[in-house]
Structure prediction request, 91 residues.
Amino acid sequence: MKIKRILKWSARAILLALILTLLVGSIAYWRSTNECDRKTGVPANPIKAIVHCEYGSPDVLKVEDVEKPVPNDDQLLVRVPVVDSSATWVA
Prediction:
């Protein structure tokens, strides 16, 4: 009897966690913006950036000139000299 009650409450807790996860994921998806649709012309202060407009393999990554981001007072802009986008790791 006690095990049935524990299993019932555990199943309800797992179901509630799944529903909340789907809800939060849906809200995050709906609030996200697609920056690829907003081509505003030539940037005034361009930098090279690797951008992606769709999910997929590394073939969807593109190198483009984008406007250099300006950090707020509580943010930090980090310069990354080299980036490797290969799927293999060298130990």
Observations:
- The two ends are 54 Å apart (CA to CA).
- Helices lie at 2-31.
- The chain has one helix and two strands.
- The longest strand covers residues 46-51.
